[in-house]
Specification:
7 helices; alpha+beta
């Protein structure tokens, strides 16, 4: 099983490097701690610097697929941010642990962060969405024995989560489009 986990994580890393060609990609082996490490063994966070594909930083998990895949299909996650910061590496590790530790995230799900995305931000949840900033070229990743789907973790506010619960995911995304939000702006106004 260890070899399958490593080859899946390596396939995700290779896919991310290929998609973000021309960007510097750093691999961070984030230590979740002894008990949590067992939930997502071999977790890596890929930190992608700004480059030809965009001015934002990208943080991508590599390791979730091997733990949670069903019939060869599973998920990894990407977050985009305005800077390189250890905080975002820790958030991605938290997402991986939350997903693999029994909550099984998927498209249109959300996850409470428990505090602001960054100090002073009103965004305190993560919404799992299609990777609109990057498209299907990043979203679909072949791994040995299957396919990983890389979904976007978009920081959102409690009010936006409430709106989504009342009106649906698509209605919230329409509000984002109408407001022309900058998804990497931690201090953006809530649309709901």
């Amino acid at each position: 099983m260890r070899i399958a986990r490593l080859s899946a994580a390596e396939a995700v890393e290779s896919h991310v490097r290929e998609y973000f060609e021309g960007h510097f990609v750093e691999v961070v082996d984030h230590d979740l701690g002894p008990e949590r490490r067992q939930v997502v063994p071999g977790l890596r966070i890929l930190v992608v610097a700004p480059g030809p594909r965009g001015e934002a930083w990208a943080y991508v998990t590599a390791g979730c697929w091997a733990v949670m895949e069903k019939d060869g299909h599973g998920l990894e996650f990407i977050m985009t941010a305005h800077v390189r910061d250890q905080r975002f590496i820790e958030l991605m590790a938290m997402i991986a642990y939350y997903h693999c530790g029994g909550h099984q995230l998927d498209l249109e799900h959300s996850m409470p962060i428990g505090e602001p995305w960054v100090p002073g931000s009103s965004c305190d949840h993560l919404l799992i969405s299609l990777p609109y900033l990057h498209g299907p070229g990043l979203e679909h990743c072949a791994v040995p024995g299957g396919h990983a789907r890389i979904l976007w973790t978009l920081p959102v506010t409690t009010a936006e989560i409430g709106f989504r619960r009342r009106h649906g995911h698509e209605a919230l995304e329409q509000l984002f489009d109408e407001a022309e939000i900058v998804p990497t702006d931690p201090f953006r106004a809530s649309v709901a």
